[in-house]
Amino acid sequence: MSVNCRQCALKIALTLDRFEAAVRKHPEIRECYLMTGGSDYMLRVDVENAGAFERIHKEVLSTLPGVLRIHSSFSIRDVLAARSRSRRL
């Protein structure tokens, strides 16, 4: 199960640096992207089930420096997995 978590409302650059350093320490967090728009970061966490996500949410995501809100969503099923990029003509 893949979960996208958007870490919102992080403040100043120092907090961003501390957040990014903390993310790198947790193998449960598979991917992390600095975003534009309403969320500062999007994280991808792979978990076995909802109970495993609840544990990571409680013990890891909610304890990261500077996190004020977490918005999570779950994929129901794959419609199209990653495909290779084609060259533009």
Features:
single chain; 89 residues; four-stranded antiparallel β-sheet
Question: How is this structure best described in words?
Answer:
- By secondary structure, the chain is an alpha+beta fold.
- It has helices at residues 13-24, 50-59; strands at 2-8, 29-34, 41-46, 69-74.
- Strands 2-3-1-4 form a four-stranded antiparallel β-sheet, covered by helices on one side.
- The model has no long low-confidence stretch (mean pLDDT 83).
Mean pLDDT, all residues: 83
Widest sheet, order of strands: 2-3-1-4
End-to-end C-alpha gap: 36 Å
Spans of at least 5 consecutive residues with low confidence = none
Put the structure in a nutshell.
This protein is α+β, with helices and mostly antiparallel strands and 89 residues long. It has two helices and four strands, in the order βαββαβ.
Structural topology:
Blueprint: E1 2-8, H1 13-24, E2 29-34, E3 41-46, H2 50-59, E4 69-74
Antiparallel strand pairs: 1-3, 1-4, 2-3
